[in-house]
Amino acid sequence: MERISEENNFPSRQAAKMTSTPRRKRRIYRTGRNQQFNAKATRETIEKVYKLADERGVTLGELLSLALDALEREGDSRRKQQKPV
Description:
Radius of gyration: 25 Å
Strand content: under 5%
Mean pLDDT: 84
């Protein structure tokens, strides 16, 4: 049956094999954080977030907290540099 179908160019009903993309290592931490935050981002941004968290050895929640603290400090320093009009 397979030979006849191949000779007559009948397509296979087998699902095409999907290309595998590298999977990230699972991250399971018990931190006490219990609120979820979702945001859409580009692939490059997501890769950067995971890379930064891995380099610092922190969870994604902790990285977000560190980033927000840094943004607040930057905002404070910018306000101090601006002169009132």
